[in-house]
Amino acid sequence: MDDLLSVPTNFASVIGFHCNGMACAALLVSHWAVESNAAMWLIASTFDIMKSDPSLGRAEALHRAMLAYIEDSSDARNAYPAYWAPCVVVGEGAPL
């Protein structure tokens, strides 16, 4: 079982959560192309949050990563929805 399966198309892509072959319980998908640094930050933060609190669901972990990204004042663009809003969890958003 892979922890992470990525099918990249310039980060407007699909990330599988705990895939077994090609069957995934949930996918992290984007509705439009995401700036690469923002995409990497959101994905890494989502997995870090899931690892630090296994009782959280995938969707809640992504939600918390988005809030942390928005609140990061190191770059004013972080609050702009184009950087964080395209990402959603599709499928089972429950804990692993």
Instruction: Report low-confidence residues grouped into runs of 5 or more.
Output: 1-13
**Strand count:** 4
**Distinct helical segment count:** 3
Secondary-structure element order, N to C: EEEHHHE
Main sheet strand line-up: 1-2-3-4
Terminal residue distance: 13 Å
Q: What is the arithmetic mean of pLDDT?
A: 79
Q: Strand portion, in percent?
A: 25-35%
Overall helicity: 25-40%
The general outline is: globular
| Category from helices, strands and their pairing | alpha+beta
- Major sheet details: 4 strands, antiparallel
Write a concise keyword list for the protein shown above:
single chain, 96 residues, alpha+beta, four-stranded antiparallel beta sheet, 3 helices, 4 strands, 36% helix
Chart the SSEs and their pairings:
Blueprint: E1 2-7, E2 14-20, E3 23-30, H1 36-52, H2 58-71, H3 81-84, E4 87-91
Antiparallel strand pairs: 1-2, 2-3, 3-4
Explain this structure.
The structure is a single chain. The protein has 96 residues and is of the alpha+beta class. The protein is 36% helix and 27% strand. It has 3 helices and 4 strands, in the order E-E-E-H-H-H-E. The protein has a 4-stranded antiparallel beta sheet with strand order 1-2-3-4, with helices on one face. A hairpin with a 6-residue loop joins strand 1 and strand 2. Helix 1 packs across helix 2. The chain is globular, with a radius of gyration of 13 Å. The two termini are 13 Å apart. The N terminus is likely disordered.
